[in-house]
Design brief:
With 92 residues, this protein is mostly helical. It has three helices and no strands. It is 88% helix and 0% strand.
Length: 92
């Protein structure tokens, strides 16, 4: 009887340790999956945000068009036009 009792205790302890290790592995796997999902979401958001840049180009185009109109009307000198144009182009 003592041998069977000792075997049962050792077997039960090994079972408990095995279950604990499995839970740890499952938690790690779940955390890794969540991390991967978050990284994928961030990557998708970054890709969606990237096309917003041309809007600045559109604004710059409008500013340049208005600036040219002012030059043509004689409101600005060529030097003033060139200086403002350079500022707009550097901001792109």
């Amino acid at each position: 009887m003592p041998f069977l009792l000792r075997a049962a205790i050792v077997g039960g302890g090994a079972y408990a340790v095995g279950k604990h290790m499995q839970r740890s592995r499952d938690q790690n796997a779940a955390q890794n999956q969540q991390i991967n999902e978050l990284q994928n979401q961030q990557s998708q958001q970054a890709q969606q945000a990237a096309p917003a840049a041309p809007a600045g180009d559109e604004d710059s185009y409008k500013q340049l068009t208005q600036l040219k109109s002012l030059l043509d009307q004689g409101v600005l000198t060529q030097a003033e036009f060139d200086a403002q144009k350079q500022k707009i182009l550097q901001g792109m």
